[in-house]
Design goal:
The chain is an alpha+beta fold. The protein is built from 14 helices and 23 strands. The strands form 6 sheets. Strands 6, 10, 11, 12, 13, 16, 19, 20, 21 and 23 form a 10-stranded mixed sheet that branches. Strand 7 and strand 8 form a beta hairpin. The longest helix is centred in the C-terminal third of the chain and has 29 residues. The protein binds adenosine-5'-triphosphate. Adenosine-5'-triphosphate binds next to helix 4 and strand 18. One of its GO terms (molecular function) is microtubule motor activity.
């Protein structure tokens, strides 16, 4: 390495060991400051180890060849630091320093690079059983770099964070930078976290939790250890909103949608009975969005987690050689955080801030030769691979400064259209790339690392999304109109009889006993942070919207019950009221969770009675027929039926 243009810094430092490097991690900063280097801010000296001298060289990124000797830290699109260990004791200093780097070329840059983290899952039994030696091709060197040591290639990659096989769900949540996304979504940015990787590489495990959606039925201790990034972020979001509302008089509103892209068709996961394929539309104000996707205001953490759980259960799943519970669709959970800005006093000038937190669990790429997909599964595989290829093409184009100003093929798939703002737009993005360390996955792992390596070069220009309060009101009015029409039609189908006990917010039952709760308590409700119903105009219309949505659910349920009784299912899958969980949560421990498959369905009369009761969480429980065939979205392992309390 040439030492001519080298800036040298002496820092007392001891080599970081893979086994303990999580102790040295620093959280990715929460500010939108793109100029901070990714080297840990303070590097501790271990006792009894000889500190050594490091030479830090700044180089143009395109000249960097990853090598196994030195650490390379990319700090911006065009610049990388090489940190070389010299063991030069003459220059040794005992003071170790906090080291941050400020880019001098554009200190006021509003750009934000896509952050990329790598998670390596442990090898599974099949991989251990494979006769290829040596089995592991990936070695995490420290919290930022990973060495790929394949048959033909050996390369070192540097990322914002690298998590090895031993890393826990808690560590991934804490050090991945996802908290920064939550904070920025609260501040009005569109923040997206997406998981990418080969099939079976651990995306759903990382995003939702061990066992996928079944995690929500496990005992408390198991959940605490194994919940994934999404439920942890939801918990953190509610904590932050509660803290923030103490500081401001203006309340927050949360609006949620959940959809999947399955075979290039968009399906609603909250209301799977909605028309099968929803359309992606584009507008100047909103960018790309899904037309007619069901959005619902929620107030408690339980409601949001129930939506997450139910949405996951409604997702298209299948089993193949590489993964017994393989997601066959890209799932997108969108949590919009609205706040009427308090700064503006003039009603006509009032603005509403609309941050959004989006979680995307991508379907995994797969080689048909390995997964042995046939027939319908083969069609799914082709669609998955095609949309991931388009995503890859977009990432390549966006990460190449010579191409990014040109045509980016977002329009070639629904996935890329919906991710357009997160990648190369005005959002903030975090990519979690999941990989297996096994030699039998070496090509796929190398591809994922390359993919991820390109993604970290993408820059966005994040902007806070605000809209005039009047626009928000107008849009809500339009939705209220639609809901009224739909409710009118439903009432007509029910023979014009008004349903019993139409919901009002006064008799809302804050059911906090859900198994899904991370921490079910009144403190997790946003309702407590808001004023009464007779608030501002937007508050009123949101409440009206919510009441109509609840009425809509109730009417749909009644219609469903009636049609069931008359033996003419109307095709819309609706509520299952679920049986009480056993007293001891241990009943859902992994050891004996098989027994939970012995579902108990309530007699119709009792079911109807329970439906009449306004148990809020049950709004989102969808009908799942254990033996349904032909719809892969219904192939999940368990359908626990729980009684509403
Ligand atoms: N970090 C991890 N620790 C322990 N087990 C893991 C880890 N990551 C994944 N697994 C296990 O590996 C298997 C596959 O994981 P998962 O279903 O999350 O993969 P995926 O990438 O979502 O696959 P697909 O794209 O096919 O949906 C699961 O049994 C999961 O529990």
């Amino acid at each position: 390495m040439s030492k001519q243009s080298v800036k040298t810094y002496t820092i007392g430092i001891s080599p970081l060991h893979s086994s303990s490097y999580n102790t040295y991690r620093t959280e990715i900063p929460t500010s939108n400051n793109n100029n901070q280097i990714m080297v840990p801010e303070s590097i501790p000296i271990e006792k009894n180890t000889l500190p050594c001298m490091y030479v830090i060289e700044s180089k143009p990124t395109d000249q960097i060849v990853e090598d196994s000797q030195n650490d390379a830290y990319q700090i911006g699109i065009n610049e990388t630091f090489i940190i070389e260990q010299t063991n030069d004791e003459d220059n040794f200093t005992t003071n170790y320093s906090t080291f941050t780097h400020t880019l001098t070329d554009d200190p006021s840059s509003d750009k934000d690079r896509v952050r990329v983290i790598i998670r390596v899952r442990p090898m599974n039994n099949k991989e251990y059983a494979s006769d290829k030696q040596p089995q592991k091709v990936l070695h995490c060197v420290n919290e930022n770099s990973i060495v790929f040591d394949g048959g033909q290639h050996s390369r070192r990659f540097a990322f914002d964070s690298v998590f090895d096989e031993a890393s826990t769900q808690e560590e991934v949540f804490h050090y991945s930078g996802v908290k920064r996304l939550v904070d920025m979504a609260i501040d009005g940015y569109i923040a997206t976290c997406f998981a990418y990787g080969q099939t079976g590489s651990g995306k759903t495990h990382t995003m939702i939790g061990a066992e996928g959606a079944s995690i929500f039925r496990m005992d408390k201790n198991y959940r605490a250890r194994n919940l994934g990034v999404v439920p942890r972020s939801i918990d953190y979001l509610f904590q932050r909103l509660r803290d923030k509302t103490m500081e401001t008089s203006s309340p927050y509103y949360i609006r949620v949608s959940y959809c999947e892209i399955y075979n290039e068709q968009i399906r609603d996961l909250i209301r799977p009975g909605n028309p099968d394929s929803l359309q992606v539309r584009g507008s100047v104000e909103e960018g790309f969005y899904v037309e007619n996707l069901y959005h619902t205001y929620i107030e408690t953490i339980d409601e949001l987690l129930t939506i997450l759980e139910e949405g996951e259960l409604n997702r298209a799943m299948a089993s193949h050689k590489l993964n017994e519970t393989s997601s066959r669709s890209h799932a997108m959970l969108s949590i919009q955080i609205e706040q009427d800005l308090p700064e503006y006093n003039d009603e006509n000038e009032q603005m509403t801030r609309q941050g959004k937190l989006v979680f995307v669990d991508l379907a995994g790429s797969e080689k048909v030769k390995q997964s042995h997909s046939k027939g319908k599964q083969l069609v799914e595989t082709n669609n998955i691979n095609k949309s991931l290829l388009t995503l890859g093409t977009c990432i390549s184009a966006l990460s190449d400064p010579s191409k990014r100003a040109g045509h980016i093929p977002y329009r070639e798939s629904k996935l890329t259209r919906l991710l357009a703002d997160s990648l190369g737009g005005h959002g903030i993005a975090l990519m979690i790339a999941c990989i297996s360390p096994s030699r039998i996955c070496e090509n796929e792992s190398l591809n994922t690392l390359r993919y991820a390596n390109r993604a970290k070069n993408i820059e966005n220009v994040p902007i806070v999304k605000t809209d005039s309060k009047q626009n928000v009101i107008n849009r809500l009015k339009l939705e209220v109109r639609k809901l009224k029409d739909e409710n009118y039609q439903l009432k007509k189908k029910l023979g014009g009889q008004p349903p019993n006990n139409l919901p009002t917010l006064k008799n809302r039952n804050y059911d906090s006993g859900s198994q899904t709760s991370i921490r079910s308590s009144a403190s997790s409700d946003l309702q407590n942070t808001r004023g009464p119903y007779n608030g501002t105009q937007t508050q009123k219309i949101r409440t009206h919207h919510e009441i109509l949505t609840r009425e809509n659910d109730k009417l749909a349920k009644q219609l469903y019950q009636r049609d069931q009784k008359q033996g003419q299912p109307n095709g819309r899958r609706i509520i299952v009221i679920e049986e009480d969980e056993p007293e001891e949560e241990e009943a859902y421990s992994p050891r004996n969770r098989q027994s939970s498959k012995n579902n108990t369905r309530l007699p119709d009369e009792e079911l109807l009675e329970l439906v009449r009761r306004p148990s809020y969480l049950n709004r989102y429980r969808t009908e799942r027929n254990k033996n349904s065939s032909g719809n892969s979205s219904q192939q999940r392992k368990t359908t626990v039926v729980r009684r509403a309390t």
